[in-house]
Amino acid sequence: MLRKNKWLLSLMAAVLLILTWSGGTLPQAIAASQGSKIDAVLVMDASNSMKNSDPERISSEAMKMFIDMLATTGDKVGVVSYTDRIQREKALLEIQSEADKTALKEFIDQLDRGPYTDMSVGLDEAVKVLKQGMDPAHAPMIVVLADGNNDLDPNTGKTSQEASDDLAQAVKEAKGSGIPIYTIGLNADGKLNKETLAELANQTGGKSFTTSSADDLPQILSEIFASHQQLKIVPVQSITGNGSYQEVTVHVPNANVLEANISIMSSSPVDVKLVDPAGAEQTIPSANVLRSTSNSYSLLKLLKPQQGDWKLQVKGVSKDKIDINLVFNYDLELAMDPPPSSKVKAGDTIDINAYLVSNGQKLEDQEQYGNMTAKLLIKDLDTGDESEVDLENKGGSFEGNYKIPQKHDYELRVRAEEQSFYRESAPVKISAKAAASGSGSGGKEMTAGEETKPFPLWPVIIGIAALLIVGAAAYFILGAIKKANKGFVGQIVIEIRDENTGEKTFPQYKKLASFKGKFNLHQLLQLAPELKETEKILFMPGKNDRIILKNHSSAVIEKSGRALDATNGTELKNGDRLRVSLQQADKTILFEYLA
What we know:
Elements: E1 11-13, H1 28-31, E2 38-45, H2 50-53, H3 58-69, E3 76-82, E4 86-94, H4 98-109, H5 119-133, E5 139-146, H6 160-176, E6 181-186, H7 194-204, E7 208-211, H8 217-229, E8 234-235, E9 239-240, E10 245-252, E11 257-265, E12 271-275, E13 289-293, E14 297-303, E15 308-315, E16 321-330, E17 333-337, E18 349-358, E19 361-362, E20 373-380, E21 386-393, E22 398-403, E23 409-417, E24 422-424, E25 428-431, H9 458-484, E26 491-498, E27 508-511, E28 519-520, H10 521-524, E29 537-541, E30 547-551, E31 556-559, E32 562-563, E33 570-572, E34 577-581, E35 587-594
Parallel strand pairs: 2-3, 2-5, 5-6, 6-7
Antiparallel strand pairs: 1-17, 3-4, 8-16, 9-16, 10-15, 11-14, 11-16, 12-15, 13-14, 17-18, 18-19, 18-22, 20-21, 20-23, 21-22, 23-24, 23-25, 26-27, 26-35, 28-29, 29-30, 30-33, 31-32, 31-34, 34-35
Helix pairs in contact: 3-4, 5-6
């Protein structure tokens, strides 16, 4: 059995990107790729066509809200405004005070529009701005606000194909530099090219969103921050204004919260009061409670908030809907002790030990572990199959073991989560493929004088029969291997609807090219625990770019309003849309297969 007590090398991952660290350092190799700060470039389509797709200048409001959500100091932000050329640009500026944020927002308010559009120009410049000015210890990102359409100036002679090639090259540069691209598609006129924007995000590990209203901005930006920092949006009760102060509770779960971002969206301005867990009303703004306002939102940022229940009192216009979102920033990471060797054998059992890290040190506060669950996530790199093993919460670590099933290569990582955030350790690759051993000749050379015996015939007959049997077996085995390694084409577009609130997530485009042989719906849903019953909804490759769906779960699957019996498999072709009604959660999953 492989044991962890030979040597330990803590692999840091899932580092929170907005935190302000109070001290301590990570190993340089880790800090270079998993920084605790953000270096972001905001990219805005400033062409005249945006007068139709973004008449209310939602893009400007989104960029300003993004800046307000950043940490009070340390993050760096740049801005690129483009048409078919760069209109205006601001290199990466390190945020050192609220005055820096104000200056950036004033710069955004001054951006004007121009004719024509070439998205490759804006994205290429954003990559250059980041590569020239980003800190290797920071985590880079690009946020694009556009309608996804090009309108090239015919006088330049640039073709649509050339613009597409330039865009592909910019995306390649971003991907190669580890820069995820998040896109916010603006669709007031219904002419959004969401496929192009989704592709930018999919290729670089970002996410794509669509909106036609400023009302969606807090949710979208909270989703971007949550995704980029391995956080979860904490639902806060929405209210309908009645002209008086109405109270909602904001629960700060523990002392590891560095910042609490409370975004408040209403069509009319609101007044707010805040009472801490000790019952003391807080001055807004103050040293520990910051407030930012704009035409479409208010944002409260609580710095190092006291653990417990805070009372937020909101006074809005009568009958005005007031939406509230909450995202915490944590000074927490997850580390996993790797096995003592990356070379293992099938049948070996590996001990798994993972733990939280705060400020570069193993977290000693066992209270933080209280409500957390953890799993070991295993990916078979030979087949693409994924599985998971529950780990035991020991109060100061997550422990378990995993038995290597086959002579394959594997990737291991640990995921720990609770209500307001999750963390994943850096992946560790191990190989259970035994080295091939050569075999020499064991034959004996016959010397002169030895009696020559008749050549035995029966062994030949038996050998030929054995070869035929082995050949037939090999044919079927190779067929099974080929089937197991057969790939997929296309993508599946997924939306999840909460049946209690009626709210639906933004479409997520899941590429299928990385899967081999089969996969389950739970994998596409990023192994969300509340959607675990989708583990038994399987996809396998079919003929002619189609896929086969098998349902071994209790969920009801419908197509065109009729329930499908997919126990033995049903074929899905390009454009097929299905609805999956879960029985163990009040959720409905809507997905479409695009070949």
